[in-house]
Design goal:
The complex is a heterodimer. By secondary structure, chain A is mainly alpha-helical. Chain A is built from 17 helices and six strands. Chain A folds into two domains: 68 residues; 308 residues, no CATH class. In chain A, the strands form three sheets. In chain A, strands 1-2 form a two-stranded antiparallel ribbon. A two-stranded antiparallel sheet of chain A has the order 3-6. In chain A, helix 6 runs antiparallel to helix 7, helix 6 runs parallel beside helix 8 and helix 6 packs across helix 14. Chain A starts with a helix and ends in a 16-residue tail after the last helix. Chain B is mainly α. Chain B has a single domain, classed as ABC transporter involved in vitamin B12 uptake, BtuC (Orthogonal Bundle), CATH 1.10.3470. In chain B, 73% of the residues lie in helices and 4% in strands. Chain B is built from eleven helices and four strands; from the N terminus they run H-H-H-H-E-E-E-H-H-H-H-E-H-H-H. Chain B has a two-stranded antiparallel ribbon. Chain B has a two-stranded antiparallel ribbon with strand order 2-3. Classes of the chains: A mainly alpha, B mainly alpha. Chains A and B meet through helix 1, strand 1, strand 2, helix 8 and helix 15 of A and helix 2, helix 3, helix 4, strand 1 and helix 9 of B.
């Protein structure tokens, strides 16, 4: 009986909430403001939603049980264990890498482009994973470092004519510097303070980029950013002054596909590099210290670990990865503006980390791919994209806070 | 009086007006934080929804031919407060209660999801364009030397000051005198102990979200009447500002939130007056970073002690 009461109550609340937002629409008519009721189609949506709330509350226990019973997509079990893994791993990695390199030549240009975007998100996800997943510091302004990387390359290339390959490490360095400067004062703060301060920092960077028109071009952004070159060979139709193009050098016909594939290959190499570095770091004392600090800060301090230095290193390295991704993003787009670096972007990257499973690299890679491809597949639902995105974040936290592929750590047990 | 002084007085009036609404929103953050130690990330969106509801009600009543201004504002206020409180309650029920007792990051992330959901819910149902309402309360006083600079103090600003003051007074009485208020204070001292002593802490926590949302709705009504426009994206910035105000005053302390809100409002008005106005948000966040740097517990907050 209590359950029925609860369900009716929830449905009533849902009715009130829906009627006064979906049910009435504000409209400007000349200078006066008018309200008019919703269309029959919207009313059917409202009634459907209320019925859903009613039923889900009525059968809440069964639904929770069903979710508990679903064989959780425990992808981590697919990975072989122990000795077998040690033998297989190099072959497996080499195989994946070869596939990644051959694949773009077999598919359409659009899918290669999409894959490049997914690789950028993988890079960002892996970088944020160091900060959030490993070190346990919630950074909501991660996109600021991405923006710093992108603008560093764009500005250096525009004002000093530096090439992509020179700017790549400089961008990472600049982002790391910003991470260091921000991290130094704020890393003493507790978790949620840190979240808000980084959020504020992200906004500061965006506002500065938007208003410092003389240098950054303001809301119009920077366009005509140079594309990367292969040992000085350009991928444009006509060579710039004194340059050689790729198709002239090899004596083949010009095709814009080469550029797309080349950008994709750069992204593959960058992601491989990032994964390699992070994996090394995780096995070093510093990486172990990150995780230890996440688990118990007070215990770490009593064991003599320098809390600030450890957090700062995680923050800086995470930021430099975003700088990497940022400069590559600028090179790929050829155009950047502050619009690309809003809070929603930070939220998407955070969602990738959370969805994949905090700390788990393979999970984050999968989540980044899913998050880039799903919106493309569900184009007709594009206006509902962010709504569903928010809802997924809430539901994931409720049913599977550890993510799709929870991080697996080596465990020793006494028998 | 000299011109610069008159100009300064005008900025102080504007700053205190905005600041008092920041204070109302900030109280919602500070009360929730004081009890469960978490940031209610969706609070800014509740404020935005409060603004929309008050616009909807006002436009609806005007459309029905009602002319009595006080009555319209009163009905709008009551409905906005009721609906926004329901939203606040729902946020707690959906995004916080099921996750109580888990890792601290988890409710925060679910609240971010909730905030994105609510913002897009309003975008989808009301459109993403600005909605404007012609000024409801016009007129005001001016003083100063007309040849130098005229300071204006509008009736709208007076209305905001009075409404904020009455709300604060009501809240203070509620917290200090009522049974529920006493339970709230007990919970913020020690949640577990209060629970052991037989207080239904779940109800108290839900109540905190409801009170916070109600105050945010009042701020929503006041600010949207003051500016005359709303859009679905105002919640994000307002939430961030109000959180800054709460931290500035010392999170967990209600007088602190009020003080922080007023200081933030005045600082912003002064920045906008003497520097390019785009940078007023930068100043607000820089202030937040500086406060956390030199006085992490805020102006009126108690320093927190970490224990094993």
């Amino acid at each position: 009986m209590g359950k029925l009461y609860n369900a009716i109550f929830s449905a009533g609340i849902a009715l009130v909430l829906a009627c006064l937002m979906i049910g009435v629409k504000l409209d400007t008519d000349g200078t006066t403001l008018k309200v008019h009721g919703a269309s029959p189609e919207q009313w059917s949506w409202i009634i459907g939603g209320i019925a859903l709330v009613f039923l889900s509350q009525l059968f809440a226990d069964q639904i929770d049980a069903a979710f508990g019973k679903i064989p959780k997509p425990n992808l981590s079990n697919l990975i072989p264990e122990g000795d077998k893994m040690v033998r297989l791993k190099p072959w497996l990695l080499a195989g994946v890498f070869v596939c990644m390199v051959i694949w773009p030549f077999l598919v359409s240009r659009g899918s290669v482009d999409l894959a490049t975007l997914a690789l950028i998100y993988i890079m960002l996800g892996l970088g944020l994973n160091i900060v959030v997943g490993l070190a346990g510091l919630l950074d909501l302004g991660y996109v600021a470092f991405y923006a710093v990387g992108a603008y560093t390359y764009a500005l250096l290339s525009q004002y000093f004519g530096l090439s992509f390959w020179v700017c790549l490490p400089i961008s990472a360095g600049m982002a790391a510097l910003f991470g260091f400067l921000l991290g130094f004062p704020v890393l003493r703060l507790r978790g949620d303070y840190l979240a808000i301060v980084t959020l504020g920092f992200g906004e500061i960077i965006r506002i500065l980029l938007n208003n410092w028109t003389a240098v950054t071009g303001g809301p119009n952004g920077i366009s005509g950013i140079d594309k990367p070159s292969l040992f000085g060979l350009e991928f444009s139709r006509r060579p710039s002054e004194g340059g050689t193009t790729f198709h002239e050098f090899f004596g083949i016909d010009y095709s814009s596909t080469y550029k797309v594939i080349f950008l994709y290959l750069i992204a593959v190499v960058l992601v491989a590099f990032v994964i390699y570095v992070i994996n090394r770091l995780m096995r070093m004392p510093i990486g172990r210290a990150w995780e230890a600090l996440r688990e118990d800060e007070i215990a770490c301090r009593s064991l003599g670990l320098n809390r600030t230095a450890i957090k700062l290193s995680a923050f800086t390295i995470g930021a430099s990865t975003a700088g990497f991704a940022g400069s590559f993003f600028a090179a790929r787009q050829g155009f950047i503006s502050p619009e690309s670096f809003t809070f929603i972007e930070s939220a998407i990257i955070l969602a990738i980390v959370v969805l994949g499973g905090m700390g788990s690299q393979i999970g984050i890679i999968l989540a980044a791919i899913v998050m880039t491809i799903l919106p493309e597949l569900a184009r007709e639902f594009s206006e509902y994209r962010m709504l569903l995105f928010g809802l997924t974040m809430v539901l994931m936290m409720r049913w599977r806070p550890q993510g799709l592929v929870p991080m697996k750590r080596p465990v020793l047990e006494l028998k | 009086m000299s011109e610069t002084l008159l100009y300064l007085i005008q900025q102080l009036i504007n700053g205190l007006t905005i600041g008092s609404t920041y204070a109302l929103i900030a109280i919602g953050y500070t009360m929730v934080y004081g009890i469960i130690g978490m940031i209610n990330f969706a609070h800014g969106e509740v404020y935005m929804i409060g603004s929309y509801i008050s616009f909807i009600v006002i436009a609806g009543l005007l459309g029905m031919g009602m002319v009595s201004l006080p009555l319209i504002l009163f009905i709008a206020l009551v409905i906005a407060v009721l609906i926004a409180s329901t939203y606040g309650w729902t946020v707690e029920r959906v995004a916080y209660r099921p996750l109580r007792g888990t890792n601290r990051l988890i409710p925060l992330i679910s609240a971010i999801g909730m905030s994105i959901f609510l913002q897009n819910y309003v975008v989808l149902s009301q459109g993403s364009r600005d909605v404007a309402l012609p000024p409801m309360i016009s007129g005001g006083w001016t003083f100063g030397d007309p040849s130098l600079f005229e300071v204006s103090f509008s009736y709208m600003q007076l209305f905001i000051w009075v409404a904020t003051f009455i709300t604060m007074l009501g809240l203070t009485l509620f917290i200090s005198r009522s049974r529920m208020g006493r339970a709230c204070r007990a919970c913020s001292e020690d949640l577990g102990m209060t629970n052991l002593l037989g207080v239904d802490t779940n109800r108290v926590i839900a109540m905190t979200f409801i009170i916070g949302a109600a105050l945010a709705a009042i701020a929503g009504l006041l600010l949207s009447l003051y500016y005359g426009v709303v859009n679905p994206f105002i919640g994000f910035m307002a939430g961030l500002k109000a959180f800054t105000a709460a931290v500035l005053g010392g999170i967990g302390s209600i007088p602190g939130a009020v003080l922080g809100g007023l200081i933030l409002g005045v600082t912003e008005a002064l920045t906008a007056a003497y520097f390019p106005s785009e940078y007023k948000d930068v100043v607000a966040f820089s202030l937040l970073i500086l406060i956390l740097l030199f006085r992490p517990s805020g102006l009126l907050g108690k320093p927190e002690v970490e224990k094993v």
